[in-house]
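Weekly sync, protein design subgroup
Attendees: M.S., D.O., the rotation student, P.L. (late)

Item 1: inverse folding check
M.S. brought a backbone from last month's batch and wanted to see whether the design step gives back something sensible before we order anything. D.O. pointed out we never logged the input encoding, so this time it goes straight into the notes. Structure tokens as presented (116 positions):
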């Protein structure tokens, strides 16, 4: 079974930076589309960043220019680098791997809190 484990969350002041990590089992990073989502209480889970197997990346408008999704295949790790953080970025961040539209895997999430 594929396992995804997020880490790197914490408390940061507005304007600061954090780097989230998603440790992935096996070779899932090679053949899966990787995504970062976030969710706050009372809100739907929001897609914030995507990296395709061919290197394509896309971001939610709210984070463009501030967040960068990347991966290190040798370390089996997906990253989300976040800068110029705002209070609106607060939430639980989840790592997701999509092999097919009907076959996806999720991590348990890591909390990011940005003080205003």
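Designed sequence read out in the meeting:
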């Amino acid at each position: 079974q594929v396992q995804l484990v997020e880490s790197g969350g914490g408390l940061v002041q507005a304007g600061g930076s954090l780097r989230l990590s998603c440790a992935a089992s096996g070779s899932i990073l090679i053949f899966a589309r990787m995504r970062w989502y976030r969710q706050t209480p009372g809100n739907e889970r929001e897609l914030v960043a995507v990296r395709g197997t061919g290197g394509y990346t896309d971001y939610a408008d709210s984070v463009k220019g501030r967040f960068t999704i990347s991966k290190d295949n040798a370390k089996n790790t997906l990253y989300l680098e976040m800068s110029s953080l705002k209070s609106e970025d607060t939430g639980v961040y989840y790592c997701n791997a999509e092999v097919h539209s009907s076959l996806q895997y999720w991590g348990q999430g890591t909390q990011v809190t940005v003080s205003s």
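Discussion: The chain has one helix and eleven strands. The first strand starts at residue 4 and ends at 7.
Action: P.L. to compare against the previous round before Friday.
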